[in-house]
Amino acid sequence: MLDQTAEKVFASILGTHQIAARITDNVVYCGEWIDREPQMNRGIFHLISAGSCRVEAQYLAEPVILHTGDLIVFPRGAPHTLCQVL
Q1: pTM for this model (two decimals)
Q2: Dist CA 33 CA 10 (whole Å)
Q3: Which residue of 58, 68, 75, 82 could cross-link 43, Cys pair, CB 3.0 to 4.6 Å?
C-alpha cells in the first residue's frame, strides 16, 4: 500500500475531476518480468514510483516507455501489458 501522502495527492487530483480511485497494489518488480492486464470493467491507472517500464497495447501505434513519476490511465480498462524496458 502506498503511503498516506500519495493517497492524499491522488484524492486531490481526482477529486477535482469528480473521479474516485482506490489504490489496490504497490508492486515492485526486478529482473525479467511481464504483467499482462486483462480487460477490466472500470478504469485503471499505473503510477511509476521508481525505475522504468514498457507499456504495450493493441491500440498503441508503438510501445510507450514510462519512467519514475509517470502516470498512465486506461479510462475504460483496456487490456495492456507492462514489462521491463528492453
Answers
A1: 0.71
A2: 27
A3: 75
53: closest CA among 70, 45, 65, 38? 65
pLDDT tens track for 33-56: 999 999 999 888 898 988 999 999
Provide the 3-class DSSP secondary structure of residue 57. Answer: coil
**Nearest alpha-carbon partner for 45 in 9, 4, 31:** 9
Per-residue cell: 69: 513519476
Buried-exposed string 59-84: b where 16+ CB fall within 10 A, e elsewhere: eeeeeeebeeeeebebeeebebebbe
Contact 48, 38 (CB under 8 A): no
